[in-house]
Write a structure and sequence with these properties.
By secondary structure, the chain is an alpha/beta fold. The N and C termini lie far apart (43 Å). It is elongated, with a radius of gyration of 18 Å. The protein is 40% helix and 19% strand. The strands form three sheets. Strands 2-1-3-4-5 form a five-stranded parallel sheet, with helices on both faces. A four-stranded antiparallel sheet has the order 6-7-8-9, with helices on one face. It has a two-stranded antiparallel ribbon with strand order 10-11.
Amino acid sequence: MSKRILIVEDEKNIVDILSFNLSKEGYETLEAYDGQAGLQLAMEQDPDLILLDLMLPKLNGFDVCRSLRQAGRNTPVIMLTAREEETDKVLGLELGADDYITKPFSIRELLARIKANIRRNEMAAAAPTGAAKPAGQRLELGRIAIDPELMVVYKDSRPLELTQREYELIRFLASQPGKVFSREALMEHVWNYEGYVGDVRAVDVAVRRLREKVEDDPAAPQFVVTRRGLGYYFNA
């Protein structure tokens, strides 16, 4: 079955270009030209991914993304923005967007990001939930424990409420305690962008949000630690 992508963008020429190229790649598309219509389509049609412009009539992209996440929808969201301000990009990620791409963008790069986000979402959905756990699969790392079967992280034996991305990030880092991973490596292994070269602020935002949930004091992290100039590692 073809994957469906919802395009929420008020510039018709951009919608036409995106629809044409996505259709060539075998995707079905849904289109909305304002945020209110986009949110309604997202809730009713449950697309596989949403391309969401920031500056929209009636309801902006930030509010659409916030509403989706508050409603418990985990549909991958890639924000489209003509703005270069870092605060806009960070705010979008903080509200639950999975990625962003700045206009003008290359269709090839956008398609790669779409495929990566859909693949990641499918892998998470396909994770087993009821089968018996093989012995030793659970990671015990001092005060932190990770159960890959249930996709749950525990701190002091209490489960943490993490997003899918936060879970994937800590699981990957904790799988090799003490090993430092660059932001580019994390984009490749956690975000599924092969050979990623480009903006890596999404990693910093995800780490900051993860620290707010896992650390005693996020300003002085004990578990997800920065190695200045190199990247991040898990301190077991």
